[in-house]
Design a protein that fits this description.
The protein is α+β, with helices and mostly antiparallel strands and 412 residues long. It has 17 helices and nine strands. It folds into two domains: 261 residues, 2-Layer Sandwich (Nucleotidyltransferase, domain 5), CATH 3.30.420; 139 residues, Serine Threonine Protein Phosphatase 5, Tetratricopeptide repeat, CATH 1.25.40.
Length: 412
């Protein structure tokens, strides 16, 4: 029988899991975690673990977002390519964020605090599972599994790359079954990057709080990069007071994650009914719809983004081109031509080239194709392009002009 990975690691003298790590010796400070935060010990088959639970009423508003609002997750689920979320009740969605011993990953990294958020008929609940020292990791993981097993879908922010693989690894190392294997997973970080990469310089959750959700954080907030240091200092000293800021940081992340999910779900499901959505955001939504093959939705949202009138010239032209190429792909040539003509009014080289192609290959109107090719020559000459790019374009246009002249001569 072949050896398991755990057996091989043990044969090399590698300790599996965190339960065998020595409990750090602490100086008596009198500031235990239960004296700093109101919580309870949750008993598991592996011993107790500390849990803090906070409930938010149905009228709780996080920034601009009512957490209890009944959003439709269908389009977000379609984007995430998970059919289960299309059918699930909102109360079966779990929001998860971890605080860890480091960001490098690997077997030496573990989660010492796991934040969980979920809807209830009365509002919204945040539960935070905390291990007082690494020997309590099996209890933390067992408590986590017990809660997670009640849900169908997990929502994270960078969870596909970090949180869920980390927790799965820790379950395996502690000989426990992972609760995430059968769950649908929506990671909002890739979606945030797609929606706001052209408008916001940062798509970190804390920055989205400020720019999208309009959530202020209090002075209790601690920077994320300080969290591992604060936990290790707590292990050395036994003084849990600085961890109050870590719990606050984690709870805010959970609340903001839930609020961002509501915002994104509403934006994608009813993009034309949202107030004060910038044209750049609508253009990003339209592109998402296009890539999801929801063509009619993409068309209506592209139109709305152009009507906004707030796009910079660069993004206005790029949106026109993207929209026109969508029409071209679906052989709606007249709509595409109208958009290229709008772009050509701003002397945009790509529009001239597309019009030349259209009249040559689709309409067989070689004189009109020559007119647009010559306009492209003039635009390329004045565009201030790098030498190599200008040469490539000029060579292509020269070849096109020669071909068009030959076609005209052949028709005579």
């Amino acid at each position: 029988m072949s050896e398991s990975l755990s057996d091989k690691l043990r044969s090399l003298g590698v300790s599996i899991g965190a339960q065998n790590l020595p409990v750090p010796k602490r100086e008596k400070t009198g500031f235990l975690i239960e004296e700093v935060l109101e919580g309870r010990d949750l008993e598991t088959t592996f011993g107790p673990v500390f849990v803090v639970q906070n409930e938010y009423a149905a009228d709780y508003v996080h920034g601009d977002i009512l957490l209890s609002t009944r959003v439709n997750p269908e389009t977000v689920g379609a984007w995430a390519r998970t059919s289960r979320v299309l059918e699930t009740d909102l109360e079966k969605i779990l929001f998860l964020d971890t605080e860890t011993s480091g960001l490098a990953g690997g077997t030496g990294t573990y989660a010492f605090l796991v934040g969980l958020g979920y809807r209830t008929p009365a509002g919204f609940v945040v539960e935070q599972i905390f291990m007082r020292d690494p020997s309590q990791e099996p209890a933390l993981l067992a408590a986590l599994s017990e809660i997670v097993n009640s849900f169908d879908t997990v929502v994270t922010f960078n969870g596909k790359s970090f949180d869920i693989p980390l927790l799965t690894t820790r379950h395996v190392m502690n000989h426990q079954a992972t609760p995430f294997k059968q769950m649908a997973h929506i990671d909002l970080l890739p979606l945030a990057r797609r929606l706001w990469r052209n408008r916001l310089s940062s798509r970190a959750l804390k920055d989205l709080e400020a720019e999208i959700l309009h959530v202020p954080r209090s002075q209790d907030e601690v920077p994320g990069w300080m969290v591992p240091e604060l936990y290790f200092e707590y292990l050395r000293s036994g003084d849990a007071r600085p961890l109050a800021g870590v719990f606050y940081h984690n709870a805010m992340d959970i609340l903001s994650l839930a609020a961002l999910f509501n915002f994104c779900a509403d934006l994608l499901h009813h993009p034309l009914e949202q107030k004060d959505v910038p044209g750049l955001d609508l253009a990003a939504v339209a592109r998402l719809f296009e890539e999801m093959d929801q063509i009619e939705s993409a068309i209506s949202v592209y139109e709305a983004s152009l009507r906004k009138g707030d796009l910079s010239l660069q993004f206005y032209l790029e949106t026109l081109q993207r929209f026109a190429l969508l029409y071209r792909k679906n052989e709606r040539w007249q709509e595409a031509v109208q958009l290229w003509i709008k772009a050509a009014e701003h002397h945009w080289l790509d529009a001239y080239v597309e019009l030349a192609k259209f009249y040559e290959h689709h309409e067989k109107d070689y004189q009109e194709a020559i007119r647009w090719t010559k306009a492209a020559f003039e635009s390329a000459d004045q565009a201030g392009l790098p030498y190599w790019r200008k040469k490539v374009i000029m060579d292509e246009l020269t070849h096109r002009l020669e071909r068009l002249n030959k076609k005209i001569a052949a028709d005579r």
